[in-house]
Structures are given as C-alpha cells and as structure tokens.
Write a structure and sequence with these properties.
Length: 365
C-alpha cells in the first residue's frame, strides 16, 4: 500500500445543545449533592463530637457523683462510729454517775452513824428531858419524844447526846432535803429511814424541823407526808422495837392531831434562863482557863437577858473567840460581841410555843 500510513482516528459524536445542557445540569446536581453529603457528613461528625463531649461530661458528673457518694458514705461511717463512741462514752459516764451516786449514798449512810460526839455535860440545862430520856433507855421503853421550841435551843443536840451516852444508833431525816424531792422520793426516803432504824436497833430516828414538811396540812404533798410518818410511827412498838422517834419542831401548832398523838412526851426547849446562861458562860471561861468574878458573870447574864438569846446565839458569841489569844478575852470584849450579836428568838416564837406547852407539853429544863 504505497504512500499509505496508519493513523488513529477519533470518532466525534454530535451532541445536540439540549443534551449538553442536561449533562451540565446533571453534573451540577451531582456537585450539589456531593457538597450536601459532605456538609451532612460534617454535621453528623459535629453531632458525634458533641455527643461524645456530652457523654464525657456525663461520665465526669457520674464520677464526681460517685466520689461525693463515697465521701458521703465515708462521712456517714465516721458519724456512725462517732455515735457509737458517744454512746459508749455515755454508758461509761452513766456508770460513773451511778457508781458516784452509790458512793454518795454509802457515804451518807456512814455519816449518819459517824455523828459528832455530844455528851450530856456539853448541854447546859435541859435536865428534865435528860432524865426522861435516860429513864426510857434504862427501862428499854424507847418512848417517842416531840421536842418543840424556838430554833437553836438544843433539840438536835439532845438526840445526839442520847446516842453518844447511851451507845445507840442514830438515823436522821433532813427536812430541808426532803422538801426538795418529788412526792414519790419523799415517801421513799421517809420509809427508808424508818426501815434503817428498825434494822440497827437500838436506835434513835431524828426528824429535824418536822413542821417544814407539813407547811400546809391541806395540800396533797403534806397529807402524803403526814400519812407516811403516821403509818411508820404506828408500826413501831416501843416496848419491843428498840426504836425511839424524836421529832423537832419550831412551830408545833402546825402539827396535826394524827402526829401529836403518836408521841409520849412533848417537851418544851425554851431559851436559857439566867442560871443556865451563867452556867454557859462559866463553862466557856473554864475551857479557856480564864477566871471571871461572879459579878462579871452576872454582867454577861444581864447583857443577854430578855428571853431572846437562844443557846445557838450564845454559842455564836463565844465562837467569836475561837482563835483569839486568851489574854485578849475579857469582860469588855465579850460585852462588845454581845452588843453586836442580834438575838434570833422573837416574842412571837415564844408565844406560839407557850400555847402548845399549856395544852400538851412539859418543860425540858
């Protein structure tokens, strides 16, 4: 094939304008869809990232909540241990208080027996009541005694001297303590005192200031106390019980008949008379190894005249010289102390006791 050569020939198709336009539109749509897909993909990616952040935050919150929960549990455990420790300490404290209360009760019972030693000679006057008490103990009658009179005239001392000299046991009921208790405790303590006296016979049960316990005989509290004392005394048979009951009152008119009739003796403890005051001052001077002339003793007697100086008032006067050098104790110094000492007994105190004396009693001196 002379002069002929091989050549690549490309066939070109004819595309009508309309087709070309459609192709361009299709390509444009494809591009738009592709961008839309990419945007959607990016949006989805952002949502995933946001969700991951939210999950991470939730996880962080959960971890924090768990940490707080653990901390709360730890605090609750510490609180529980603290409560247990507090309860343990409370039980220990209650045990200590219980033991202390037991110790106080034992100490009080011991103190009831370890009373101050008082002898008959320590008490000036009151010869009549001394004789009555000695006779009762000698004949084992143990008859009950109501000691009444103005405060400070030997009612309590006489009961202590009785226990010292006659070697019998001593039990006391302190009215000032009883009145601070509730009704149940009052009855229990009164009954316990009588029970103790019955167990340690021969014994004296002394109730000081009984009139304080029954201020208002119409009140429930006073009626309960009166009833309990009445029952307890009624249950004591003097001839076989070995218990003597001595009550002291400053205002005997307050005592109801149910109590008055339980006593065999009603003895009036009045203020010391002239002779008794002279004896009182003489005993004081003898203890100090000081001699006063009889005229000087009479000056002291006259300075305390008037029926208003109790034995307690006289003791207050002489107690002023407790730490005094005896060289400084003279008639003038004692008179100065007397003038500065206000007597405690009033005319009314004496009068109200005199009415009771005329009806029921006898003199103790």
């Amino acid at each position: 094939m002379g002069g002929s050569s091989s050549s690549y020939s490309r066939t070109v198709y004819y595309q009508p304008p309309q087709v070309r336009t459609q192709i361009v539109d299709l390509q444009t749509q494809i591009q738009i869809q592709k961008r839309a897909q990419q945007e959607q993909l990016q949006a989805n990616q952002r949502q995933i990232e946001q969700r991951n952040r939210e999950i991470a935050e939730i996880n962080r919150i959960n971890i924090e909540n768990e940490r707080q929960l653990q901390e709360r549990r730890r605090q609750m455990e510490e609180r529980r241990k603290q409560i247990e420790e507090n309860n343990r300490q409370k039980k220990i404290l209650q045990q200590i208080l219980y033991q202390e209360e037991e110790r106080k009760q034992k100490l009080k019972l011991n103190q009831d027996n370890l009373i101050d030693k008082v002898y008959w000679d320590d008490i000036v006057g009151l010869d009549a009541v001394k004789k009555v008490l000695r006779d009762d103990i000698e004949h084992k009658r143990y008859q009950n005694l109501h000691a009444f009179g103005p405060i400070g005239n030997g009612k309590k001392l006489i009961s202590k001297a009785l226990t010292t000299m006659e070697k019998i046991q001593y039990v006391s009921i302190n009215s000032s303590e009883i009145i601070r208790m509730n009704n149940k405790e009052q009855i229990q303590n009164i009954a316990a005192a009588f029970e103790k006296a019955r167990k340690i016979v021969p014994s004296v049960l002394f109730i000081n200031n009984i009139d304080q316990l029954i201020v208002d005989t119409q009140s429930l509290q006073s009626r309960m106390i009166i009833g309990e004392i009445d029952i307890q005394i009624q249950g004591i048979r003097p001839e076989i019980s070995g218990v003597m009951v001595i009550v002291a009152s400053n205002d005997p008119d307050k005592l109801p008949q149910s109590i008055i009739r339980r006593f065999h003796h009603h003895m009036y403890f009045g203020v010391p008379n002239d002779n008794e005051r002279a004896t009182f001052f003489q005993k004081f001077l003898q203890k100090q190894a000081i001699y006063f002339q009889n005229s000087e003793i009479q000056q002291l007697v006259q300075a305390t005249a008037g029926g208003r100086y109790s034995y307690s008032d006289l003791s207050h006067i002489t107690d002023a010289f407790f730490n005094e050098d005896r060289s400084r104790i003279n008639i003038q110094r004692i008179l100065e102390i007397i003038r500065s000492t206000k007597p405690t007994v009033t005319q009314y105190d004496t009068q109200k006791c005199q009415r009771f004396l005329q009806q029921y009693g006898q003199l103790a001196n």
